[in-house]
Amino acid sequence: MGSIHFLTFIWILIVLLRQNLSLRKELTLESDTNSRIEKERSLRMSRNFGLAILLHAFFSLTYTLYGLGYLSFSNFQLILTSATSLQLFLYTVLYLNYFPEPSSFMIKILGVSLATVLILLCVVARISFVLIESHYDEARKTEIENLRENLKLGRGHILPKDVLYLISSSDKGYTTRSDSSDGNDIGPISKRMYRVLSLPENKPVYIIWYTFYSEGRIYEIGYPYESYSKMIHSIVSIIALILISSSIFLILLLPYLIRKGLRDLQTDRKKFEL
Fold first, then answer.
1. Low-confidence residues of the chain, pLDDT below 50?
2. Where are the domains of the chain?
3. How many helices (H) and strands (E) does the chain have?
4. For 190, which DSSP code?
5. 233-245 pLDDT per residue, tens
């Protein structure tokens, strides 16, 4: 998939390069001033749009790096979200500067401001999401460490809250499972993994599970997915509210504030001239 994305952007760059060369050739033969100005503008637009596509092509390589195992799932999502937000800003600026229909100064300021704020909030939301995931994993690992101590003391019946099941098997013949989202490195406590269980009523149950070693045995502990989703949805709701509020503020109040500020500057200028 990553290679397909990258080759698609390369194809777009080839098309833009051919257009750029064609415009340069037409520009050397053009004698009309207005036509030259329009072609120079189109040439700048083609060049800047090509640079934005080239940057996007480099970011698309993250798919390949993730597929080859050089990037973890969390880092892949963080890079992809940041890249998408940056592309939103670049394309917004290109649209406002080079769209055939004339745009007012107010629309340009409003568009760039809105894109900038949304970009920053998207990056902050992604970082917050990663931090919450890390906090969830640390909380589960702390519970598992306490459970390991209980197993050593013969109190394996004392389970942490929200645990759905705890099963064990001998270490002999153990193989790494393949249904992990982040990979599964055999160690004291595995990374977070996901599973779907089918009940007799054909109702799927989503499970988050970890594996760990204790006293020569391998244990698997399962948690309900709801415990994870509640923690994630809490930050998602807050970020969504902030995004909507910021967008409404920029769309409704920013034009008024800019006009008010410009009007005050014009008044001060008239007083100074008098």
1. 174-186, 265-266, 268, 272
2. 1-101, 144-228
3. 6, 4
4. P
5. 777 777 777 777 7
